[in-house]
Amino acid sequence: MRRPIFIIFITSLLFAFIYTKNYEDNFYKLDNNEIQLKGIVKKANYEEKYFEYKIGEFLVRDFNKKHKIPVGYYVCINGKLKSLEDLKLNEFDYGRYLRSIGYIGIINLRNYKVENKNKNIYYFSYKGKCFIENRLENIFRNQAPFLKALVLGDKEDIEKEILDSFSKTGTSHIIALSGLHVGIIIYIFNFIIRGINKFYKLMIMVVSLFFYCFIVGFTPSVVRACVFSIIMYLALFIQREYDGICSLSFVGIVLIIENPFVIYSISFQLSFFATLSIIYFYSIINKYISYPLISITIAANILTLPIIYFNFKIIPIMVLVANILIVPFIGVLISLVLISLIMSFLNLKITFIFIKTVIFIQDYIFLLINYLSNIKFSYIELKNVNLKLVILYYILLMSYMLFRETKIVKEQKNEVQGYY
């Protein structure tokens, strides 16, 4: 096997599955009891019906909206603990979902006391995100919700009908931060800082990507894409051979060790399997098609289609057409949005030209998505899904990948020995 770390990654997935299935919630016996918690407010979400905070590894909610706690404060809170066991909404396991994004319990806030107001990285990252959001809203008005999703991964203000249209056409990855977005941002950074010393370039890239992760909340897909990119640039800097599957496997193992429940995150599943699928199958497909965008789209869907089928009960039929017509404009759109943000401080007349261009491209995307999602047979909606079918699909694909790897290793040994 050329890539033993990939086998370790697959093994870690299996161990994580076994561990999470046999996991015992330490807080189950304390359910509905009053507890006290001290920690830094890492995130805040001020919803219409409640305020929500991340303090330590707990999700803290204030349904009375009496306490608007700033991000970055070190606080002592009192409230009623809610265990994540048996938190199911219809067929959706909400407790498992919260664990997959790093929470270990919910606390309904009763009161709190601020113990330290010193500004820290959480304060600055939150202020940075709020600044960008407010600037986007001021510049683009009604178009801001979609653009916030593109740049910051914030989909809360996007209408449900639009989200459904993206799902039906297999283009949801466009509005979910992933390697596509990180790659575009890296390309823009490379263009801006081109020509400088390689070491300083690497340092600027690492710091920038780390801060971007902080702003968008360390989602698995963004962490994967950022660390993946950093490893690639580090390999180039030290002039060592770079292997995408090994780097991807390493990042996956680290995330699973940090939180085994991350395997249930759809963001984690789609991000990792899409990247793995592209790395492994792109070159094979492109030999026969020789059109990169089509090859990438087909390759990405080989390992992700079962995930979409199982989680969303949908099989998108127009995925190839939608991605070919839309994805090329996403890089242009993100670039123009970032330029508009910068130019809004320098020259409003020039900014107006960029704003109009952004609106035109966004209208094109929405019009196309709406049209494709409403075509008859553009997607197949299912009432029930079959887990055994998904498992069989992955077993067959994994068998093919292992067979191909074994064949490649054998060919390489024959070449070394002087015959082929």
UniProtKB/TrEMBL annotation:
InterPro entries: ComEC_N, Competence_DNA_uptake. The chain crosses the membrane at residues 174-193, 205-238, 289-309, 315-341, 353-373, 385-403. One of its GO terms (cellular component) is plasma membrane. Pfam families: Competence (PF03772). It is found in: Cell membrane. Keywords: Cell membrane, Membrane, Transmembrane, Transmembrane helix. It comes from the Bacteria. The keyword Lyase does not apply. Its main location: membrane. It is a multi-pass membrane protein. The keyword Magnesium does not apply. Residues 150-405 form the ComEC/Rec2-related protein domain. This is Competence protein ComEC. It comes from Tepidibacter formicigenes DSM 15518.
